Structure formats: structure tokens, C-alpha cells
Records
---
Amino acid sequence: MSVPRTTFVYIARHGQTVWNTEQRIQGSANSPLTDEGTAQATALARFARGLQIEQILSSPLGRARHTARIVAQAIERPIEICPELAEICAGECEGMRLPDVKTHLADFWQSRKQDKWHHRWPEGESYTDAVHRLGPLIGRETIWRTDGSTLIVGHQSLNRVLVYLLTDCTEQQVLQSAQPAPVIMRISSNRRVGHTNLQTVPALDQPIRWSAGLFPND
């Protein structure tokens, strides 16, 4: 399929949540946006006005839907809720604080670090599971439009899988990346990925600087 070079897939993460501030693992569970998270979603909405977005695809989880709704209202575009875009399920660890998981489930955590891509959360999913889950969505021709770009509002781990499927990045490259809420990724039809940080974006009438590659996980 021939896709105009001017169309992109933009990948955003939901705004900050209460559980984010408490270092709790969310996975398929949910937590409301904080005031800061709502402000981040509003900043994304302002940014999206200049991106020629024609469709918004959102995770079904509340934190992503809230973020997507703020953007949709600003740019007057519909939202399509896609179950495939839900965050990777962390099973029994959902709701636990990450420091507690590392302390009380130390054997599990060490095992996970050895092969993070294939290792499942207890009663949950792995990155590999998410690859299979996302396959049908990625295969849809409507991801790439001829009349404008697509914005996907998802989650950090799930978005890593999206980048893996839509670009030539390796498993390790995406696992070594991070996506704080202000970071937006842009994927072109030739499978190139770049990123920008809304905290450093100039005035809306100025060109946006896109850095090549993924945002590093410091």
C-alpha cells in the first residue's frame, strides 16, 4: 500500500495518574489522572492541533480514554476505543508498589530482568503476549491514512510493543526506551521513529524539533 510521506502515526502516553505518583503498578487496572496528568493531556491537545490528526485510537482503560477525550475535544476528531491497546496486564502485581515487588518478590523480579520480553507477570501477560494481541490492529490498513495522521493514546509498555511492530527497532532497543507523559513518538511510513518532548516544544507557530530514535531510559 502506498502511503503519502506526509502522514505519520503519533504515539502518546496517558497523563500522570495517582498510582504513578505512588509508584504503583497499574497494568490493566486503573487510576485517575492527577491535576498534573490533566495538564499534560491538555498540553498534548494543544500540540495535536498542528499535526493534521484525522483519527484517534485509544486504549479502553480510563486513564488513556480521559487523555484521548481531552485531545479529541480540542481537535474535533472522533475516538475509536481499541481493546488491543490496553496496557500489558501485570496480574497479581497490579496495585503493588514497585519497591515492594522488588523486595517481596525478589526471585520473580530477578527472573524477569533476565528475559523481560518473554517473562510474564504472575497471572498476567508478557511483551510477547502483547505482540500477538496487537497483530490484528497493526494489520489494519486504516492505521495509515491517506488524508492525515493517526494519534494513538496508550501506555508505556504497550507503546514499546507498538514501536517494535511499526519500526525496525529491536526488542532490546524498545525495552531500553522510556516514555514519560510529555514525550510523543512519531513513526513514518518508512518505519523511522523519532520523538519530541512537549516540555521543550517551542511556540506553536515554530517548527517542531523531532529527535531521531527513541527517548532513552535514564
---
Amino acid sequence: MKRREFIKMSALTALFLTVGGSLTPAHAATSIASKTVVNITLDGGPDFKHLIVPPFDTDAQSYGGAYWRARASIFRTKAGDVTKLRQAYIDNYDEVTFDGMRFGILKSCTWLKNEIRSGNVAIVNNVVASTNRNHYHSKLIMESGSLRTGSNETDISGWGGRSVTELDANVVAVTRGVRLVCNGPDALRGYNNKRVISNYDSRNMGLYLYDTQADLESGSRNYIWSTQAIISRSLRGYYGAKAAEIPQNSPYRKFITQERQLRQFGDQLKVRLKGVPIPAAIKALYEGSSPLESPYFGKQVRNLYDSFATQDILSMRFASMEYTGWDSHREQHRSLEAKFGDLFGTNKGLHTLITALNRLNSNIYNNTVFVISGEFGRQLKSNGDYGTDHGRGNSMLVIGKRVNGGFYGDPFPAEDIDRLEIKNEDIVGKTSMFQVFAKVLDWQEKGLGSRVFDLNNQPIEPGVYLSRMLQA
């Protein structure tokens, strides 16, 4: 570990201690899982209408007929070539009938298909959060949970940070950087990160402890003079000496106390994780020839697995993940199939994670809800570059054992048939994304959603009952 990384890790670990995290002795296994929300942000405007599609129909006046003609260029064919359009549907999609709806789902997403059939996936359609088609501003709106958020307002709280503040718990960010959704509220500064734990490198949390034997076993010949060994020995000796010199009532005593707490915190995590080896299937997602297009997402899976293994130590009730690169203006079919496959394929990201979590503790998936969304959607009609341009309305997924699966909102509304042929036409936003987030938070604690979001004038599509989406 380089000196800069060592200092950064120490600072990030300190975030946990600022909220009075538990420093009780580590247990051999995780405690009973608390209700936890995992928020996965798909940066770039994911086209969920490419993931779940209407079956091809030769009738151009039907939704299936109009959809496939409007998006023919994505599959490198022409709107009038019925034979090739039908074959594109057969080649790329598995047909499913569920919740009274017949639809196609990308063949790369076999795990998701099985979860849908098991009733563990709520597909919420015609959702909208952003007031515009700008990536940056739309992400600020979505993650802050407020339509009033301006295009340059970054010093604000996020809905995840506000929720854990209400729950007296913590956010764990398993991403490279902490996203705005994790920010907690602060009346004076706008936000704070007192309840955020950055856990991007879950096996190296806490202060580094110089270990001669471990360095010898690693085969290092210069372990004594390595940067991390020098820093570790120096700091440990310095704080040990100062602990005996600084009076108990000195204002500088808090630094000594914090250093001791940091070591205790790190020791708890190391002891716990020492008895929880990384499953080979998870390790394969980010090491060597990863089966994922994004090994970075694979590493987040590892970090989240470790976070659940230490959930009682971290006091985690909200976790933040991300997958970037969904801005599909060009070559949409080729790029999106791999990305959706990373998330939803058999033996890929979420399937591997949940399989491993079930082996770790069968209660975890029963008490976890995954919320998957992007800052906006795509236009109904494809563009001239084999992709789709920015739109507003979209779909989102809520996944978990406590989910009452099915469609919430019509994925193929008849009113869209004529609009499918019009360039720049959006999916009509009928349900506020904040209403969906709020219902997920209500599952964690009754009334939590309305304490985190201002739901006044936030619509829900007629006939959609989000209150039925999750079981208590």
C-alpha cells in the first residue's frame, strides 16, 4: 500500500468512528440481517426498453409491430423487413409470460428471467425523476431526491444519506468514490458524510499493521524497508509513546483515542473476514480473465459481500453501487447486451453475489431489496447511429425475496403506438421515481419514505399500487 493510499484508508475508516460505530468484540459469523436497501445507479440513461421488449408482431398497428419497426436500425435491419425483424427477436430474446403479460427478455439475462418467474422482480414502468435530458443535472435530481435541485447544487444531501440518518445507521459505498445519494443532511453546510463508510477495498479497511511473518511468507526480500512497513512501525511507535505522555484532559488526547479506536475497528473487520474467505465465484468476477465486461462491477460485488459479512460492525442499512456507460447513442445492441448481462446473467454479477450471500446467511437476501435505476431513459424511436438518444421516462427494477413481483405500470401502452414513429418522443413519465424509492424506504421502516422525500405533487400512474410492491 502506498503512503497516499495508507492515509486515504485511515481517513475513510475514521468516517465510521464519527458516528459512534460499534467496537464490541467481533463475532464468528454475521448477526441476523437487518432490512437493507442496495441502490445500483446505472449512469448514462439505461434503455430498459431494450431489456424487456414486446414480442414481434407482423401487424404494424399493434405495439409489437410498431416497436420493432421503430427500432429496426438498432438490429441493423430495415423497418419493412419483417423476416429479419422476427429473426432479431428470436435470436436475441427469450419469451416469457408473467403477470398476465407476454414479453421478451434479453437472452444474456437468464438469472433475471428466472427471478421474474419466481415473482422476485417488480418492473416499474413509465417512471420519471429528471426535468431534463442533461446527464449531470439529472443525476443530481435523482440522487438528491428533489426536483428543486439546481444544475450546480452538489453540496446537498442524498436520499440514501437522509434515510440512514433517520434509521440511526450507516451508508456503505462500495464504489471508487462516494456518490451524492450517500450524503447525509446538515443544516449549516448542506450535507455531511458522518454516516458514510467508503468500502472500496474491503479487505484492507482499517490501519495497516506491519507483519514480519506475513511479509516473509509473501516472498518479499525488502519487507523491512518497504514504505508501508516504515509508516506502520513509525506511527504505531509514535502513538504508543504519546499515549503515555499526553494527559487525559489534554485536547490532543482525542487523537490518541481515535488511533486506538481505528485499530480496534480494523482488527474487528480483519478477524471477521479472516473467517470469511472470498468465494471463488466472486473473485473470478474481478481477477484474471473476468467473465464481466466490467471487472470494476465485480470488485463492487466483492466489497458488498464483505460488507454484509460485517454488517453488524458497519451498521449498514443502505449500500451504494454503480455501473457506468449506459449512454447508448451508438451501437446500442452490442453494448447494452453485455452490460445487462453483467448485471443479470447467470453466474454474473447479482446472481453470483446473491448465491454467495445465501451461503453466508440465508436471511440476507430475504431482508435485502435491490433498486436499479438511471437518471433518465431513452427516446422511443432509434436514431441513425444504431442507438437511441436521451429521453425522460424510463423503467426501473426492484428485486428481492420480499418483492411482490410483476409489472407496475403498462410497459407497452397503446397510446405510444403512434408516437413510436416520431423522433425525439419520450416515454411519458407517469410515476415519480421518488414514489418508488419512498415505498422501498417504507418497507425498511413505516413512514420513512415521507420523512426522506417531499412527495407532494409526485404522481403515481393510475391503477398502479406501489404500496403492494413489498411484503413487510
---
Amino acid sequence: MSPQVNLVPIAPVEISQILSLVREFYALENMVLTEAVAKSYGALLEQPEWGRLFWIQFDGAIAGYGAVTFFYSFEYHGRSAIIDELYLSADFRGQGIGGSALAQLEHFCRQQGVACLNLVVAAQNDAAQKLYAKHGFETLKRQLCIKWLI
């Protein structure tokens, strides 16, 4: 039987609750949650045209969260999105919840007119890589390059 997974939009007033899970995610990924990064979650909640944050609920309990942000790309045929973060608390992993949440995020993006869905996964995160490949994501032979402007 398939798990009862629902995506529920996160409201701006729930910023402290989401940041609690973000801290867990950042610790797991060995990333630093700075004040500037924390503020960016609130900014996204206030600007839905930039993307959305969702609670991932499993049988009514908050299992994690997902973040989708939008952009435009000629290469990716117009309006595109990135699953910027997909996080499940430890107790909810390995039960099919991530796959269900991923499918629902894809459905949401299709409803938003997204032509191409992207994501970034850590090279050492084998479990996530397997999940994403199972759901049709392919690894491009490209290198992500960034330059901080702030």
C-alpha cells in the first residue's frame, strides 16, 4: 500500500517551524545556515512567484519539507524550476515518502507551466541519487559554477 503523503503549502507565519527542519537538513549536509540564508526562506514565503515551500506530511505528521524555485532558461525551453531542497526527517526515510513527495512536486511544477525540472544532489548522497534516477532525473555531464554577488 502506498504511503499517505501530502504536500501542504507552508504559510509565512510558519517560518520558525520550517527553519527548525532546515537546521536538521543543513547539519546533515554539512552546510552552514547563516542569517542571510535563513532570511531567504522568509523572502520566498512572501513571494510565491519565486517558488514555493511545502510541508511533506505523512499520515498527518510533518515528515519533512520540499522547496521549488522558478527560473527561465532557453536551454530548458522556457519556464523551469529547481527542486532546491527535499528533506525528510530520519524517522521517515526509506518508506517511499520521498518518491511520493517528488512525484507531487513534479505535478505541481507541471501545473505551473514548468518545461524542465532540475535538482542538485550531493555527490556523496547515494540514496538521494538513486531516488532521483528512479524518478527519471538524469545526471548531465556539466559542472555547476557559481559566483556570489552578495
---
Amino acid sequence: MAVKLKDVIAEMKSVITAGDRYSAQERSRRVLQLAGEFLSAALGGVARNGQTAILMVDRDLGQLIFAYPEHLARGNVLPIDDKSFAGQVVTRKAALLENSVPREPHKDFFERIPDPAGEVRSIEKMIASPLFGAEGEVIGVIEVSRAGQESTGMEANFQPRDVANLEKSCRVFAPFIARSWTRERGW
């Protein structure tokens, strides 16, 4: 049974309003997990090794910090520049669609980090959208990708409607992520 966006929002609201039931880090992790798992299933596609990464802007450092998934949220950062897909999303304040990731120059070091199952899969296709704060500033980026070798063909490509759905999801998730995000330190 597919999870609906309204159910994810209801769960995020309950996590945010739970008071002392969660520590700040547990609250942050849960909100990010809810967003990430929903987007991986809804847009990435389980059969296509769908993955979601959430990166947050650190204005002091001028970098993007991986916040989700948890195995990447251990000090992994990217500069905010046009040499990474996420950096392009921040600098341009616009969504991105790329169906031939291996052919485009990009920072790929995090693709070589094994997932919790110990597998390493290169990203083949990606969509990304900015997370906007209350004042219209970019506070982060959500990337949804399809990883590993798969059959080629138009059905495997992301479509403009996927970008539109990601942008809508980012608008909905941004206030919850902004309110709950706590930078992980010392992992």
C-alpha cells in the first residue's frame, strides 16, 4: 500500500508537536526519514533503486551538509557551487532534471560510500529541488535519484511531472524540515 503525502504530513506534525517525547536529534532524524522514504518510493521507485538525499545549507561554512540518509549525515559536505548538482540548485534557486548523470561532470565521492546494506551504486538519473525558507531563501536541497545499472528507455527517465511533484513536496516539507533540523555532530 502506497503512503500518501497527507499521511506523511500528519506524521511530521505529530513528531513536531510531540514535545519531550523526542530529543531534538531524534525529531530531526524522524522528519528527514519521513520525507526521504516517501520521496524515494513515490519518485525514485523501489524497482529502480530510488534514493533520496537531503542536504542543508550551512551559510557560515558556505557548504551543503548531508542531513539524510543517516549513513551520509556524518560530516559529508559539498561546496555551494556549480560543480555539483545540489550546488547548482542552490545557486540557481531552481529545480534540476538530469537523466544522464554519469555523462555530466559532478562530485561523485558520496556515490562511493556504501549504503547500509553495503552496496555501492552509481547514480544514473536525478531530479533535485530547493527547499525554501520562510523568507524565500534556499535552506536546503532534496535530490531523488535512480541508482545502479538499469535498462535504458524512456520509462526509466525522470519526466518534467516528476520535477513538478518534487517541487510541490519540497514546498510542503520545507517548514517541517526547517523547524526540526538539527545538525548531526560527532558521529
